[in-house]
Design goal:
The chain is mostly loops. It has 2 domains: 13-176, 3 Solenoid (Pectate Lyase C-like); 184-344, E3 ubiquitin-protein ligase SopA (Pectate Lyase C-like), CATH 2.160.20. The chain contains 2 helices and 12 strands. The chain has helices spanning 3-11, 338-345; strands at 15-17, 35-37, 55-57, 75-77, 95-97, 110-112, 115-117, 130-132, 135-137, 151-153, 156-157, 171-173. The N and C termini lie far apart (85 Å).
């Protein structure tokens, strides 16, 4: 079948089944609204073609050239895009279900309000791609995923193993990456403002100098991570694990750390004004020269902590364990609150 015959069938609204269109030159062709089932487009040239609102079911586009193509509102179901080239393509509101995107190249493509359900993403390249309100749901393999220079805005990528993904130069805004394994990754100097990282694995990560303002690290594992100099005002670390982490000179005013594990963490020179650290396990932490004014350490374990040179003005140490801690004299910190202790001990009589 040649190009003109194919375009004629598409214009007539025919459902095209079992066609072998491999190697066909369809550059700039208008295939919009077409319906294809079990068709082969291996190595086809579809650069700047329109596949807007097209439906492809169990088709093979392996190695196809789709540079600059329009896939607006297209639906691909169980389609192979292995080694396909989709740089500069538009995938606004596209829906890709159980598609194989292994080594597919989406460099500088536009993915807006797109859905990728159960995709295979091994070594797929989304470098310099804008992923705006994109849902990457239940990815089946993400080894070597390339997100260098990508912008992830309100993008959902959950429960993915991203230990080998590449994030250099990427930025995140209101992204959701809950339950992801990012162990050992580097986000140094990057923007992750308002990103959700609940229960994420971030052990050993380098977040030095990153913007994590208002991020949610609820029950995340940040053991041994480096957060030196982070901008993390009002960030949420409730129940997080940061044993042995380094947070030197971090700016963390108004952050929340209740019930987090901080044993041996280093907060030297950090700013934690008005932060809430109730019931934290912070034995042997270093808070030297930190600003802890108005911080709340109620019921915290601060055994053997070093507060040398720290500002503790109006910091609350109600029922805190401070055995062996180096606390500066005349610090202005508040000790046990007898009225609060009585209220905490109250048990209603029935």
């Amino acid at each position: 079948m040649n190009r003109e015959e194919l375009l004629g069938k598409v214009r007539r609204g025919e459902v095209l089944e079992g066609l072998d269109l491999g190697g066909l030159d369809l550059s700039g062709a208008d295939l919009g609204g077409g319906a294809f089932e079990h068709c082969r487009f291996r190595g086809a040239r579809l650069g700047k073609a329109s596949l807007a609102e097209t439906i492809l079911h169990e088709c093979d586009l392996s190695g196809a050239e789709l540079t600059g193509a329009s896939l607006r509102h297209a639906t691909f179901i169980k389609v192979s895009l292995v080694d396909a080239r989709l740089s500069l393509a538009c995938l606004t509101a596209a829906r890709l279900v159980e598609c194989d995107l292994t080594r597919a190249d989406f460099t500088a493509a536009a993915l807006e309000i797109a859905q990728l359900v159960k995709p295979k993403l091994e070594h797929a390249c989304f470098a310099k791609t804008v992923l705006d309100r994109v849902a990457l749901l239940e990815p089946d393999g993400t080894d070597g995923l390339d997100l260098r220079g990508a912008r992830l805005k309100q993008t959902v990528l959950m429960a993915a193993d991203l230990r080998t993904a590449r994030f250099e130069g990427a930025s995140f805004e209101l992204a959701v990456m809950n339950d992801c394994d990012l162990s050992g990754q580097s986000f140094a100097g990057m923007s992750l403002a308002l990103t959700q990282l609940s229960k994420a694995k971030l052990a050993g990560c380098d977040l030095s100098g990153a913007d994590v303002e208002r991020c949610n690290f609820h029950e995340a594992d940040l053991a041994g991570a480096t957060l030196d100099g982070v901008l993390g005002r009002h960030a949420m670390f409730f129940g997080a694990k940061l044993a042995g982490a380094s947070l030197k000179k971090a700016r963390l005013g108004g952050s929340v750390w209740n019930e987090s594990e901080l044993t041996g963490a280093n907060f030297e020179g950090a700013e934690l004004r008005e932060s809430v650290l109730q019931k934290v396990s912070a034995a042997k932490c270093r808070f030297a020269n930190a600003d802890l004014s108005y911080a709340d350490f109620s019921h915290a374990d601060l055994s053997d902590c070093d507060f040398t040179g720290a500002k503790l003005f109006r910091a609350r140490l109600h029922k805190a364990k401070t055995a062996g801690a180096k606390l500066p004299l005349l610090s202005g910190a508040l000790g046990d609150d007898s009225d609060l202790a009585e209220a905490e001990a109250f048990e209603p009589k029935h």
